[in-house]
Amino acid sequence: MEQINRDALFCDETEDYRCPSEADAGEVVTFYFRTEKNGADAVVLLEYDPETGALLQEWQMKRLSWECCAGSVGNGADTNRGIDGSGMADKSDSRFDYYSCALTLGTKIFSYVFQVTWGENVCLYDRIGLTEDAAAHPFRLIPGFHVPEWSKGALMYQIYVDRFCNGDPTNDTETNEYIYLKKPVTRVTDWKEPISTLDVGRFYGGDLQGVLDKLDYLKSLKIEAIYLNPVFESISSHRYDTSDYKNIDPILGTLGDFEELVSVAEANNMHVVLDGVFNHVSDDSVYFDRYYEYLEDGTDTIGAYPYWAYVYDAMSEKKISKEEAEKQAKEYFTAEYGITNYDYTEWFDVFSDTTLKDDNDDEVCDSVGLRAGKPVYGYDGWWGYDSMPIIKATNGSEYQTGTWAEEVIGKNETSKTADNSVTQYWLSKGMDGWRLDVANEVSDETWQHFRKSVKALDSDNVIIGEIWTDAVKYLMGDMYDSVMNYMFRGAAIAYAKGGNSADALNTLERLRERYPKEAFYAMMNLVDSHDTTRLLSYLDGIDDDRKQKEIAEAFPTYENTSDAAKQKQYLVALMQFTYAGAPTIYYGDELGMVGADDPDDRRAMIWGEGNENLVKWYAKLAAIRSSYSALRTGSVEPVYGTDKEILGYVRSDDSDIMLVLMNNSAADKSVTVNVAELGINAAELADVITGNSCSAAGGSVTVNVPAYNGVILTDKGHVKQVSVDEENLKPGFDPAYKIKAEERAVKVTGVSLKKTEITLQKGKTANISENVVVAPQNATNTAVKYKTSDKTVASVDKDGNVTANAKGTATITVTTKDGMFTSECKVTVGDQVQAAKIKLNKTKLSLKKGKTYTLKATVTPKDCTDKSVKWKSSKSSVVKVDANGKVTAKKAGTATITATTKNGLKATCKITVTDPATKVYLTPAMSIKKGSSVKLTASVFPKTTTDKLTWSTSNKKVVTVTKSGKIKGVKTGTATITVKTTSGKKATCKVTVVKSNKKSAGIKLSAKKLTLKQNATKQLKATLDKNATDKVTWSSSNKKVATVDKNGVVTAVKKGTVTITAKTSGGKKATCKVTVKVPATKVKLNKTKATVAKGRTLTLKATMTPSSSTDKLTWTSSNKKVATVDKNGKVKALKKGTATITVKTASGKKATCKITVK
C-alpha cells in the first residue's frame, strides 16, 4: 500500500485527488480514489461524525478508469479535465484502478476516510495517509469555505516596526527610562549599532509614522499587504509580551497614527494585518501586574498576581481557607484601592506551592509592591519565560477561561457592528486581519470562535496562523484562512542550496495535495522572519540557532557573505514570486540584509545602503507577477523528469500559460522541454524577464537557464511590458537616504512648573500639563510622565489631570522621558461644601415646536464644592433636555424639566410646547344654490398644529358661516369666506350664490405639471364654468408618492411621479403631473483628510442623507495645480502641497476633504 500513497501524492495528476474544500452546500461532489493495478478488491467511502468520530454512513465506490490517463505520466495526459466523471469507462488502465462516487454536499461539515480492502486485509486512508484511527485525521469538507479574494496571491511585506523607520523622534524611548528584565532600557541612536544579546530592552525608534513615510517605497515594490509585528502597548521592543491590547504602544505612535496608516494604505490598495499574541501577555501587563504598577497607579480592575499573592499569603500566615482568603482579599483591595472588577484573576494559574527560581536555582523575590522581599509565587510562563505568563486553558480551552474570551475575542459572532472586544475593536479601526502568534499553542475551540468573530464583521478579514509544520487541521474552514508557510521556506531554500529539484517539488506537491485550494493560494510563502536566520545568511550556511556562540556565525556581515549566497537569493526570490501563494518579504530582504537567528534577524533597516540590483530584481519580479494573473492565482502543475538541478512548473489561467524553469547550479544549463505535453501550444516563446525568445516548433523548446536564476516562458504574442518605479525605490539603495545617528534629536536639559502649589476641593479636578516647561524649548522629545505620592488624596492620569479624592496633601512629580529630569507640585485638598439651594431662571416657559432655550440653574452657596446638576424631562418626547440645561421643543404638549444637585436638591420648570400653523388652504372659489348649505374644511399644515380656527364672512346677507365652517347661501350675489388660525395664517374662498344648480361643461387646473420637494405642499386650483355648482373631488394615482385633499392641496411624500385628478360631479376631469424630488439634508465624504502620492489617484465617496435624495453632486478643488477632481469624485495628485476637495449637493449642502500631496 505504500505505492498507493506515493503515486497518489507525487505525480502530475494530483489535482484530481485533492480535498475540494471549496465546495458549497447543495453542490455535487465527486470523490475519486486510485490504487495500483489490482491492488484492491473494494474501496468504500466512510462518513464520520466530525464531533464524536462515530461512523455515520458507508458508500461503495464504483470501479472506473480514466481512459485519458492511460500510458505513462507526462506522455500527453490531459491535466485540465474536471471532476464530473466525464471520460470514464468501466475498465482499469494498465497502471491503476480507479474508484468513484458522487454525493450532494449538505450544510454541515462532511468528515470522511477511504476504506480499502484486498483479500482479508483492510486499511483506512485519511489526509495523512494510511491509518488505523479513522477519527484522527479524516478528510473534511466545509461547505462554503472561502478566504478573502485579496489574500490570494497577494504580495506581503513583514515589518518589525521598531527597526523599520523613525518617522517621529518625539515618541522615542529614552535610555534609563525604566527597568526591564533587571536592566535599564536603552535608546539606540546609531542604526548601524550591532544587535545586543538582550535586544528586547533596546529601542531604535521606528514607529507607525515611519511606516507611513515609506508607503511610496512599498508601493514601488507592488506590496499589497503589510504585516506588522506587534504594535500594542508593551515594555519590550519585540512586543510579544503585551501589556494592554487596547492601546497602540505610545513609542510607536497614537491611535490616530494607526488610523491614518490604514487609511492611506487602503487608498494605495494595501491591506494591513496585525500580529495577535493571545497565548500569553507580559508579566508587567494590566492583566497580570506582577510589579503592582497598575494597582499603584489606580485601576478598577486588579491584575492576577497581586490578588493571588495576597490570597496565598493570607492562607499561609493566617492559616485560613482559600475561600476565606479570597473574601478577605476582595474586601482589602476594594477598600484600599477601589477595586471593583476581579475578572483578570481567573485568566492565569498562579501556584501557592511553587516559587520562581533564577538561573542559579535561587528563589526570586518581589522587589516592589505589598510583598517586597517575599518569594514570587510560581506561574506558567511561555516556554518557561516568567516575563510572559500564559493564559489558562480551562478544560483545555482558553475560550472557557473566565472573561478572557469576552474581552479578547468577543461574543458577537453574527452582527456586522463591532463589539468592544480586542479582536473586533481593531478590525473596526480599519485593519484587514490577524496573524496569530504561536497559534498551535491555543485551543481549536478558541480559534473556531475567533474565526466567527472576525468574519462576522467582514468575510474579507483574513486570519493567518503561525504554524511551522503541516497545517491541514487548521485549514478546514473553521479556523484559519492561511498559515505562515515555513514548509515552503524549507523546500525553496533546500533547493537553492543545491537540493534535488524533485525533492522540492514533492514537498510542494504534498502541500497542494493536502491543503484546500482556497487556502493554498493564500499561503504566506515566506523564506525568513523574525523567528529565523535572515534569508541571505541562511543561504550562506548560518542555520537557525539562537544559542550560536561564534561571533562570525551569530553576527554575520554582508561583506563576509559569499558571492554564491548573494546569487542564490535571486533564485529564491524568483521561486517566491512565481509559485502559488502569497509571497512574503521580510523587511530588508530586498536590500540584501543579513542576520543570524533571533535577535540578530531584527537589525535596523539599512536605508540607502541596499544592493541596487537586488532591490530592482525584487521590484521587477513584483511587476511581472502583478501583470500576469496566472502567476498570482493560476493553476500550478509540476514539471518532472528534467535535470535534478532544474526545477520547473507551469502556471496557467484563462489569460496565460507560463513555464517557470529554475537552475540551482553555479553554471548555466541548456534544457529541452516538451511544452506541447504541458499544454503550451505556441510557435515561439519568450522569457518575460529578459525578453529573449526561443522557438517552440515541433512542440519542444530548448532554453538556456542561467545559473542561480531562471526563466519565465510564455507565448511571445502574450508578452506584456512591465515597468519599475525606480524613483521611489531609491530609499533602498541611494546613499542620500542613509540614516544618520541623532540627526534630528535635541536633548532635554531640565523641567520646571509655572505653579508649584495648587489647592482643590474634594471631588474637583485640575490639569497641570499647562504648567509644565521642558527646556530647551526646541527639545526633540518633550514627553513627560506624572506620578502622585498619595493617590488616596490626589490622583493624576497620563495627561496631567489631577483629581482631589480626600482631605490632605499630596505631591505630583513630573518626569521627562528624555533625561529623567523631575519637578514637583504640591496639591492641597480641602473638605467639600454641600449645596444648600437651587433655583432656575424660569419656572414656566412656552416654546414653539422646534425652538430651543437654555435654562440656567443657580446653586448656592458660592463656594459649593460641586455645583453640577443633572437635568431630566418628565416627557422627553415633548421636551428634550441635555446635560447643560438646553431644552428642545419636540412636539405639542407639556413637560416638566427638573434640575437636581449632587446632594438631591431639586428645581423645576413647566414647559408648554405649541405647534403653530404655517399654512392654511380653502377651495379658492365655488358656486352654491340659494338656500343650500356646504361644509367647508380648511387644510391646515402641519397636521400636528395646536392652532384653533375662526371663520368669518364679508357679507352675511349673501352667505353666512358657522364656527365650524358651514356656509349657507342666503341670496344671490358674492361673499368672501375667511378662515384664520391662532397664529395669524389666513385663507379665503369666494362664494357665489345662484338661483339654480348648473353643471360645468369642463374643468381646468391651475397647472398641468408641478415639481415639489419632499414634504412640501402646493394647492391646485380648479376652474369651472361661471356659476356652475358642481362639486369637485380630487384623487392621486399613487398616495405613496403624493396625496391630495378636498381643497386640491398636494403634499409630496417621496421620490417619484404621480397624476393628480380633479373630477366634477358631472363627470368632467382635469389632471396634473406631479414630480417629487428629495433634496439632501446632509452630505458626507468617506474621508475628511487623506495623503496621496504625487501622480496617484484617490476616489472619494459622497453619501447623501437621506439616501433617497435626488440631488446631483458637483465637485471642486481649491487648488487645481495641486490636485484635481472629476465629476465622479476621483482625485488626481499633481504636485506636492495641499488642496481642499469640496462636494456640493443641488440643495447647497457641502462636505470637504483636505488632500495632502507628497
Summarize the biggest pleated sheet: 8 strands, parallel
Please list the strands of the largest sheet in the order they lie side by side: 26-25-24-19-16-11-28-27
Task: Round the Cα radius of gyration to an integer and report it.
Answer: 39 Å
Proportion of helical residues? 10-25%
Strand content: 25-35%
Please identify the structural class as seen in this structure: alpha+beta
State mean pLDDT (0 to 100 scale): 90
Count of beta strands? 81
Q: What distance lies between the first and last C-alpha atoms, to the nearest angstrom?
A: 64 Å
Poorly predicted runs: 1-21, 66-92
How large is the count of helical segments? 19
Give the overall shape, derived from the CA principal axes.
globular
Account of the 3D structure:
The structure is a single chain. With 1158 residues, the protein is of the alpha+beta class. It is 15% helix and 34% strand. The chain is built from 19 helices and 81 strands. It has an 8-stranded parallel sheet. Strands 2, 3, 7, 8, 9 and 10 form a 6-stranded antiparallel sheet that branches. It is globular, with a radius of gyration of 39 Å. It starts with a helix and ends with a strand. Mean pLDDT is 90; it is low at 1-21 and 66-92.
Helices and strands, with pairings:
Elements: H1 2-9, E1 28-36, E2 42-48, E3 55-60, E4 62-66, E5 88-89, E6 96-104, E7 110-118, E8 121-125, E9 130-131, E10 139-141, E11 156-159, E12 179-180, E13 183-184, E14 186-187, E15 202-203, H2 208-213, H3 215-220, E16 225-228, E17 232-234, E18 242-248, H4 255-267, E19 271-276, H5 293-297, H6 304-318, H7 322-337, E20 350-355, E21 377-379, E22 381-382, E23 385-389, H8 404-408, H9 422-428, E24 433-436, H10 444-457, E25 462-465, E26 482-483, H11 486-496, H12 501-514, H13 517-520, E27 524-526, H14 535-539, H15 551-554, H16 563-578, E28 582-586, H17 612-627, H18 630-633, E29 635-639, E30 646-652, E31 657-663, E32 669-674, E33 684-687, E34 693-695, E35 700-705, E36 709-715, H19 726-729, E37 750-753, E38 757-761, E39 765-767, E40 772-775, E41 784-788, E42 794-796, E43 801-804, E44 808-816, E45 822-830, E46 837-840, E47 844-848, E48 852-854, E49 857-860, E50 869-873, E51 879-881, E52 886-889, E53 893-901, E54 906-914, E55 919-921, E56 925-929, E57 933-935, E58 939-941, E59 949-953, E60 959-961, E61 966-969, ...
Parallel strand pairs: 11-16, 11-28, 14-15, 16-19, 19-24, 24-25, 25-26, 27-28, 38-45, 47-54, 56-63, 65-72, 74-81
Antiparallel strand pairs: 1-6, 2-3, 2-7, 4-5, 4-6, 7-8, 7-10, 8-9, 12-13, 17-18, 20-21, 22-23, 29-30, 30-31, 31-36, 32-35, 33-34, 33-36, 37-40, 39-43, 41-44, 42-43, 44-45, 46-49, 48-52, 50-53, 51-52, 53-54, 55-58, 57-61, 59-62, 60-61, 62-63, 64-67, 66-70, 68-71, 69-70, 71-72, 73-76, 75-79, ...
Helix pairs in contact: 6-7, 9-10, 11-12, 16-17
